[in-house]
What we know:
alpha/beta; five-stranded mixed sheet; two-stranded antiparallel ribbon; 5 helices; 32% helix; globular
Amino acid sequence: MRYFLDTEFNGFGGELISVALVPEHGDQEFYALLPLPEPLHPWVERHVVPYLNSVPPGLSSGPMPRRQAASEVAAYLAHDHDPLIVADWPEDIAHFCSLLVTDAGDMAPVGNLKFEFVSSPGFSTAAVSRVPHNALHDARALREFVLRWQG
Protein backbone atom coordinates (compact mmCIF):
# COMPACT_ATOMS: atom_id res chain seq x y z
CA MET A 1 0.00 0.00 0.00
CA ARG A 2 1.04 3.61 -0.47
CA TYR A 3 1.66 5.81 2.56
CA PHE A 4 1.89 9.56 2.13
CA LEU A 5 4.68 11.13 4.13
CA ASP A 6 5.22 14.58 5.51
CA THR A 7 7.62 15.88 8.12
CA GLU A 8 8.26 19.12 9.93
CA PHE A 9 11.80 20.10 10.82
CA ASN A 10 13.70 23.00 12.33
CA GLY A 11 14.45 25.05 9.22
CA PHE A 12 16.64 24.09 6.28
CA GLY A 13 18.78 21.12 7.32
CA GLY A 14 17.39 21.27 10.85
CA GLU A 15 16.36 18.51 13.22
CA LEU A 16 13.17 16.49 12.75
CA ILE A 17 10.22 17.76 14.78
CA SER A 18 7.31 15.61 13.58
CA VAL A 19 6.52 12.88 11.07
CA ALA A 20 3.25 11.60 9.63
CA LEU A 21 2.22 8.71 7.42
CA VAL A 22 -1.26 8.62 5.91
CA PRO A 23 -2.36 5.40 4.20
CA GLU A 24 -3.85 5.42 0.74
CA HIS A 25 -6.85 3.44 2.07
CA GLY A 26 -8.34 3.49 5.54
CA ASP A 27 -7.94 5.82 8.45
CA GLN A 28 -5.10 4.26 10.43
CA GLU A 29 -2.76 7.25 10.35
CA PHE A 30 0.61 7.60 12.04
CA TYR A 31 1.89 10.75 13.73
CA ALA A 32 4.92 11.18 15.95
CA LEU A 33 6.07 14.31 17.66
CA LEU A 34 9.70 14.55 18.75
CA PRO A 35 11.20 16.87 21.38
CA LEU A 36 11.66 20.40 20.11
CA PRO A 37 15.28 21.30 19.35
CA GLU A 38 16.87 24.42 20.72
CA PRO A 39 17.20 26.99 19.47
CA LEU A 40 14.09 26.96 17.30
CA HIS A 41 14.26 28.64 13.94
CA PRO A 42 12.06 31.78 14.21
CA TRP A 43 9.93 30.80 11.20
CA VAL A 44 9.34 27.33 12.66
CA GLU A 45 8.47 28.84 16.04
CA ARG A 46 5.79 31.04 14.40
CA HIS A 47 4.42 28.76 11.67
CA VAL A 48 4.92 25.16 12.84
CA VAL A 49 5.09 24.90 16.64
CA PRO A 50 1.59 26.36 17.32
CA TYR A 51 0.04 23.59 15.18
CA LEU A 52 2.02 20.52 16.25
CA ASN A 53 -0.80 19.21 18.44
CA SER A 54 -3.57 19.87 15.89
CA VAL A 55 -4.23 16.16 15.44
CA PRO A 56 -7.15 13.92 16.46
CA PRO A 57 -7.23 12.90 20.13
CA GLY A 58 -5.27 9.74 20.80
CA LEU A 59 -3.06 10.06 17.73
CA SER A 60 -0.28 11.81 19.64
CA SER A 61 0.71 11.43 23.26
CA GLY A 62 3.21 14.25 23.11
CA PRO A 63 6.91 14.30 22.27
CA MET A 64 8.73 10.98 22.23
CA PRO A 65 12.42 10.08 21.93
CA ARG A 66 13.71 9.36 18.41
CA ARG A 67 14.31 5.68 19.16
CA GLN A 68 10.70 5.28 20.31
CA ALA A 69 9.40 7.10 17.22
CA ALA A 70 11.47 4.77 15.02
CA SER A 71 10.09 1.74 16.86
CA GLU A 72 6.54 3.01 16.43
CA VAL A 73 7.08 3.57 12.68
CA ALA A 74 8.30 -0.03 12.42
CA ALA A 75 5.26 -1.30 14.34
CA TYR A 76 2.92 0.81 12.20
CA LEU A 77 4.32 -0.60 8.95
CA ALA A 78 4.78 -4.18 10.23
CA HIS A 79 1.49 -5.43 8.77
CA ASP A 80 2.41 -4.36 5.23
CA HIS A 81 4.90 -6.52 3.33
CA ASP A 82 5.32 -4.06 0.45
CA PRO A 83 4.94 -0.47 1.72
CA LEU A 84 5.52 2.41 -0.68
CA ILE A 85 6.33 5.73 0.99
CA VAL A 86 5.30 8.72 -1.14
CA ALA A 87 6.62 12.24 -0.58
CA ASP A 88 6.73 15.49 -2.51
CA TRP A 89 9.81 16.94 -0.84
CA PRO A 90 13.26 15.29 -0.75
CA GLU A 91 13.97 16.31 2.85
CA ASP A 92 10.87 14.42 4.00
CA ILE A 93 12.36 11.18 2.69
CA ALA A 94 15.78 12.05 4.13
CA HIS A 95 14.35 12.81 7.59
CA PHE A 96 12.21 9.66 7.52
CA CYS A 97 15.19 7.46 6.64
CA SER A 98 17.38 9.18 9.21
CA LEU A 99 14.76 8.53 11.88
CA LEU A 100 14.98 4.81 11.18
CA VAL A 101 18.69 4.75 12.08
CA THR A 102 18.67 4.08 15.82
CA ASP A 103 22.38 3.59 16.54
CA ALA A 104 25.69 2.99 14.79
CA GLY A 105 25.00 0.07 12.45
CA ASP A 106 21.45 -0.38 13.78
CA MET A 107 18.01 0.55 12.48
CA ALA A 108 14.36 0.07 13.32
CA PRO A 109 13.10 -3.26 11.91
CA VAL A 110 10.98 -1.87 9.07
CA GLY A 111 11.72 -4.55 6.50
CA ASN A 112 11.78 -3.58 2.85
CA LEU A 113 10.59 -0.11 1.94
CA LYS A 114 10.11 1.58 -1.39
CA PHE A 115 10.05 5.32 -1.89
CA GLU A 116 8.40 7.46 -4.52
CA PHE A 117 9.24 11.10 -4.97
CA VAL A 118 6.30 12.93 -6.55
CA SER A 119 7.31 16.08 -8.37
CA SER A 120 4.41 18.45 -7.93
CA PRO A 121 5.19 21.82 -9.54
CA GLY A 122 2.61 24.39 -8.55
CA PHE A 123 1.21 22.24 -5.73
CA SER A 124 1.78 23.27 -2.14
CA THR A 125 0.56 21.20 0.79
CA ALA A 126 0.64 24.38 2.89
CA ALA A 127 -1.74 26.10 0.48
CA VAL A 128 -4.37 23.34 0.61
CA SER A 129 -3.77 21.67 3.98
CA ARG A 130 -6.52 21.99 6.59
CA VAL A 131 -3.78 22.88 9.13
CA PRO A 132 -0.75 24.14 7.17
CA HIS A 133 2.68 23.08 8.44
CA ASN A 134 1.28 20.21 10.49
CA ALA A 135 2.80 16.97 9.19
CA LEU A 136 -0.43 14.96 9.52
CA HIS A 137 -2.63 17.48 7.72
CA ASP A 138 0.01 18.10 5.07
CA ALA A 139 0.34 14.33 4.45
CA ARG A 140 -3.46 14.16 4.07
CA ALA A 141 -3.31 17.02 1.56
CA LEU A 142 -0.59 15.19 -0.39
CA ARG A 143 -2.71 12.03 -0.46
CA GLU A 144 -5.70 13.95 -1.83
CA PHE A 145 -3.53 15.61 -4.46
CA VAL A 146 -1.96 12.36 -5.64
CA LEU A 147 -5.21 10.42 -5.63
CA ARG A 148 -7.04 13.16 -7.51
CA TRP A 149 -4.41 13.98 -10.13
CA GLN A 150 -2.29 10.88 -10.48
CA GLY A 151 -4.52 8.00 -9.40
